[in-house]
Design a protein that fits this description.
By secondary structure, this protein is α/β, with parallel strands linked by helices. Helices cover about 40% and strands about 15% of the residues. The chain has a single domain (about 5-210, about 265-300), classed as Alpha-Beta Barrel (TIM Barrel), CATH 3.20.20.100.
């Protein structure tokens, strides 16, 4: 496993991290298998585990926390999130001081820890003044309940505004942003977010680096009945189309050439981006963990990256056709031309 600093912060995170959305809290994966996935991730050197209060309305924090408590706390980087609706109460959502302050205590209790390493603002909150949110995060750092705070799915301009306010009022700035980023979802990150986060000392912890499984190749020939796209139509609609299928199939030749899987290729491509600190995977089975973790050691040359970008831009290489064989010689003599019949004049 490889490790990178979280932006310009001193803490290091594994370049492959494990998310708890698909594993825990919503019954998508059997509890025993989910436990084995987390343990195997730790055995592979993964130290960064990402969850959120809204995943199963607290159940993900409880279940993953129960597994993580079996490991030494100093070897873990645990993140959780705040923003989503946790009950029908009018104040039980958003990024107000009230909701954040109450939510962190509930999350810590569910996870079973005294602090979380990273606390994400799960989405921007248009109803709460940004300075209120930032001051609350700064207070939680000073009280030792969180070590760093970050944003998730914030636009570049919103992150820049937060950085400016932190500098103006001498408050702890965000050190990470969690956006969606993959070979099939690039522009928002590369054109809007990275120009702000890189100079701002913010490291990205990206989710859906495999495009919900699309980049693994499992959907080359349609949607298997037991697959995620079969269960979750929104994911299928987002990524399944003729163009994406063609691109993913074309990437197989490069992966085969490098003797790696397409999952490893897709993860290595995300990690080739210097502004990315970690790629969050949503493995549901132990073999997926073993496969994905190996991507940490894959380095893509400039030539390989150029070929990948060409495919992603729609320049799909034409498969080489086998040369046509000459017709086989036959031992039968050529047929004599038929004699012309006499005609009367």
């Amino acid at each position: 496993m490889q490790y990178r600093r979280l932006g310009d912060a001193g803490m290091k995170v594994s370049v492959i991290s494990l998310g708890g959305w698909i594993n825990y809290g919503e019954g998508k994966v059997a509890a025993d298998e989910a436990r084995r996935v987390v343990i195997r991730a730790y055995e592979n050197g993964i130290n960064f585990f990402d969850i959120a209060d809204v995943y199963g309305r607290g159940e993900a924090e409880k279940q993953m926390g129960a597994v993580l408590r079996s490991f030494p706390r100093h070897t873990l980087v645990i993140s959780t999130k705040v923003f989503g609706q946790m009950s029908d109460d009018v104040n039980d959502r958003g990024l107000s001081r009230k909701h954040i302050t109450e939510s962190i205590d509930k999350s810590l209790a569910r996870i079973g820890t005294d602090y979380v390493d990273i606390y994400f603002c799960h989405r921007p909150d248009s109803e709460t003044p940004l300075i209120e949110t930032i001051r609350t995060m700064d207070d939680l750092i000073k009280r030792g309940k969180i070590l760093y705070w970050g944003t998730s799915e914030w636009r570049g301009g919103q992150i820049k505004q937060a950085l400016d306010l932190c500098e103006k009022y001498n408050l702890n700035p965000p050190k990470t942003e969690q956006p969606q980023y993959s070979m099939l979802y690039r522009d928002p990150v590369e054109k809007d977010v990275l120009p702000i986060t890189v100079p701002g000392g913010i490291g990205l912890a990206v989710f859906s680096p495999l495009a919900q499984g699309m980049l693994t190749g499992k959907y080359d020939d349609g949607v298997p009945s037991d697959s995620r796209f079969a269960r979750e139509g929104w994911a299928k609609e987002r990524f399944i189309n003729e163009t994406n299928v063609t691109k993913v199939k074309a990437l197989k030749a490069i992966a085969d050439e490098l003797d790696i899987t397409r999952s490893q290729l897709a993860l290595a491509w995300v990690l080739r981006q210097p502004g990315v600190s970690s790629a969050i995977i949503g493995a549901t089975r132990v073999p997926q963990i073993d496969d994905n973790a190996k991507a940490a050691d894959v380095t893509l040359s400039a030539e390989i990256q150029a070929r990948i970008d060409s495919i992603l831009a729609g320049d799909i290489p034409t498969p080489k056709l086998a040369p046509k064989r000459a017709p086989k010689a036959t031992s039968k003599p050529a047929a004599k031309p038929a004699a012309k019949k006499a005609t009367k004049k």
